[in-house]
Amino acid sequence: xxxxxxxxxxxxxxxxxxxxxxxTVSKPQEMRETIAKIIISDPxxxxxxxxxxxxxxxxxxxxxSGSSAWGGIPELKAMA
Length: 80
Fold this sequence. Notes:
By secondary structure, the chain is mainly alpha-helical. Helices cover 50% and strands 0% of the residues. The chain has a domain of 52 residues. It is elongated, with a radius of gyration of 13 Å.
């Protein structure tokens, strides 16, 4: 087992995921877009209630906007 340091820059969740899956921390936007597709494809699971009161399209726009949008439970659920 090795320890990897990932910058706490707003992309940390997405970088950790791509580090585990692809051994890189250079694709956070690609992971954000993949998660956005999952959210849009399943409006029952990712309802306004689950997405911090945001409509799924609004949430997807926010989560794909960049490092100012931190990932959380909906993103972890989508990755699972």
